[in-house]
């Protein structure tokens, strides 16, 4: 992969769009095209084949969830393109629609939480590398939902914390830093999560992490 990542940005408000483009430029991410509506976003992604598409949820022509629908179409035709949705709204339903059957390469961030170019850059590089970047507040809202027949019921509180941070897209080292514990301690918790969710037979650790996150998000 080239050192300079390439992005397509979708945002109908010019000032916000220019702000996103400026933030990306400051962290060496090249914006190869920008779009003010969902149709142009899809066309631009097909033409430029970027590393990542970053878009608002609400865009013309309908000013509903057009941006989200656009990146779902882009993801279906270009599965290697990372996608990040920026939203004013804390809506777990949108996040679940975006994740679909695989959280790899997707991000859902609240606009108000993007405080610096480095924060946006971290999310971009995570999704481009096949990880995820889900806003902690979205994860918290999913954790708080009432559940029936909860498959996560056997997890300890610490294991739930670890799984929640996995869902946000953090590595074991990142989780260890967040929880002020050692990486081996996190690895033990992750192993316990896999065992309790009956994911020991999955074909790779990364695959098991994806399955664990999907169980967490959809339970």
Automatic annotation (TrEMBL):
The modification 4-aspartylphosphate is found at residue 56. Residues 148-219 form the HTH luxR-type domain. CDD domains: LuxR_C_like, REC_NarL-like. Keywords: DNA-binding, Phosphoprotein, Transcription, Transcription regulation. The keyword Signal does not apply. The keyword Iron-sulfur does not apply. It comes from the Bacteria. Residues 6-128 form the Response regulatory domain. This is Response regulator transcription factor. It comes from Micromonospora globbae. The lineage of its organism: Bacteria, Bacillati, Actinomycetota, Actinomycetes, Micromonosporales.
């Amino acid at each position: 992969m080239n050192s300079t990542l390439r992005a397509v940005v979708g945002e109908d408000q010019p000032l916000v769009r220019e702000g996103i483009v400026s933030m990306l430029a400051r962290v060496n991410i090249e914006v190869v095209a920008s779009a003010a509506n969902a149709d142009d976003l899809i066309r631009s992604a097909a033409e430029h084949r970027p590393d990542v598409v970053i878009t608002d949820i609400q865009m013309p022509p309908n000013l509903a969830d057009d941006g989200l629908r656009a990146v779902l179409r882009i993801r279906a035709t270009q599965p290697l393109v990372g996608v990040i949705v920026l939203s004013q709204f804390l809506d777990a339903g949108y996040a679940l629609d975006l994740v679909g059957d695989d959280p790899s390469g997707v991000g859902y961030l609240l606009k108000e939480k993007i405080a610096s170019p480095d924060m946006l850059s971290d999310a971009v590089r995570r999704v481009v590398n096949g990880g995820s970047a889900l806003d902690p507040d979205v994860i918290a809202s999913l954790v708080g939902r009432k559940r029936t027949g909860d498959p996560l019921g056997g997890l300890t509180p610490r294991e739930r914390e670890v799984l929640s941070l996995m869902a946000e897209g953090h590595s074991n080292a990142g989780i260890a830093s967040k929880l002020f514990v050692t990486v081996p301690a996190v690895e033990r918790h992750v192993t316990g999560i896999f065992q309790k969710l009956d994911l020991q037979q999955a074909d790779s650790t990364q695959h098991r992490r994806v399955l664990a996150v999907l169980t967490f998000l959809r339970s």
